[in-house]
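Message: A physicist's question: would you kindly supply an amino acid chain plus fold tokens?
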Amino acid sequence: MSAHFVAGLDLGSTGVKIMVLDPAGEELLVEQRPTPWTTGAGGTTSLDAAALMAAVSSLLTCAADAVVERTGDADAHIASVAVSGMGETGYLLDASGAAVAPAFAWFDPRGTEQVAAMPDELRTDFAGVTGLPLGAQVSVAKMLYLRDKGLELKGLRWVNLPEFVAAALGAPPVAELSLASRTGLVDQDTGAAWPQMLAYLGVDDSFVPPIVAAGAFVGSADQEWLPHAFVGSAITVAGHDHLVAAVSGGTIPGAQYQVSMGTAEVILRVLDTPPSREARERLAAHLINCVRHVVDGQFVLVAGVKTGLLMRRSLQLFGIEDREGRDWLDRKVCELPEGGQLPAGSVIVHGARNDDGVLSLTVPADGVTPAEAFRAVLLHGNDEIAILLEAMDREVTPATSTLLSGGWASMDSVQRARAEVLPQVRVSARSQDTAFGAAMAASALAASAPAVSR
């Protein structure tokens, strides 16, 4: 590992996090701020660019202070910073680089009508070309929504959240391939922009910034607002958060399910060769993505469920707002006898499908406790995961082991539930796999990026 301080940013659905590694590769700092969403009616969820950058600025200041304190040197330097984050969410930028509209959460329902109104040819070709199921979750749905609300797209550029932050630090706008793969703008066979979709949006090739590989040097931090320790830091975009988390511990064995448990619960399979267009269409019918990995030349199957979102909303429903309350509920679920204490059907749950996400708890029986309800949410997730695994296993050889990572994976009740449906479950020892994966990308960059005068 290169002897530098490095930083990894993780722009997640729940929190914005930073991790700093010292020259020995040990964690010096892990800090988090809530993702500053603004919520509205019907599940609409937006992210103002200024609010996002305020959170990022606060984290960078914490990181810089930690490095100065460790070294005792006011001129201490962070050699590189890598930015990872959620897919599908991004900003439309004008020629000056300013965001002209808020970002929409990947689970925001806006764009549903625009997807339904797409020409038949685009709808038919979408999954086979992009490797994505067509729905409101893909970025093009949000672009079309804004266009239909009167925003002129011509002359603008789309950047995903991590690419926006990289540009705000001083890099030119880029499109990192694993993130661009999730927009609906990229042809998976060519790795380039899909001309027919650009034409439907009414834009030209400049709408998609230059496409780069994850971990590539994209520029140097040079903005006046930056803490001194970050001025001159090399910048990279580490890629889509779930994929960055997946490689944080090294190469993923081909026969392993990598399960990243955040607001979305994502099951990954790594492939050395891309599935055929026909296979992509079959998988998309089950809401499974076939997209580019953060490892150059590799592809991933990405099967997702919104179980983290449902678990979070369940805790809110039960009035649980802190780690102590979550730990209490975890214990209570684990204390339930096998099969629970109530008759089957006492709690009915819906919402985990990736095209849903609206928590629906129906309680047709008395005696339902928070533990029984949370157990039902976990088992509903199992049911949806089993459907996804069956669809994946028809296309590729079933995996023989599983690694769970992410915030929810620390709960014993979650581990026990997933062991009922996933093979040979192990749990990552790291609490922040994505931030660590981003920090590792920053470390690799520090060893290879051109030196920048400060």
In short: The chain has a mean pLDDT of 92. DSSP finds 14 helices and 23 strands in the chain.
